[in-house]
Structure prediction request, 202 residues.
Amino acid sequence: MSKEDIFWNWFELNSSKYYYINQIDDLVEKEKLLDDFLKHLHDYCDKLFFKIGGTPNEPQELIISAEGNKHCFHIVEALVTKAPEIDGWKIIAFKPPMGVDFVTEYDGIKLDPHEIWFLPLDNENDPNELGLRLCFQNYNPKKEKIFLEGCYQVLDTILGEKSVMFDLQHVEVAKLPRRPEENGLIELSELPKYIAWRKTKV
Prediction:
């Protein structure tokens, strides 16, 4: 039996425990279930992670993620390709794009996509490569690393995991100038459209 089959056999036997995971009020029990899932996933590959849940009385989603590790993308695809059909479940490879209508907090920093702007950065040596400078009104250069790490979470949510890995080659962070548009910046909500447009030009 393959490692993929071992994992999916376990999940198929236990999937009912996870169907109402978001409705479990007992935090200890909920954490125990999530930890057990992660253990079995890491028995398959300790570089993979997951998100699980959904709206009550609708198909629940299980997302298998490489957390941006390009070297593990083929492992995610190998696992999800072998997933069985399980009633009430939708099994997805990689975090999908989720739009911009959210606000997140990362290590004490509020990140609202509607307040973030980006400047496209071209690579003179390779016109196919795209970099981004993300600009924030509340940017603090002393917390550059935190802003940068938080940005990747925001970009993952907006673009989806695969797009962040394959469409972006460089990301940096900076203070938002007073007149963003006059400085060539674009609202972050326009980034998916910008990337799609750019692919038609390269």
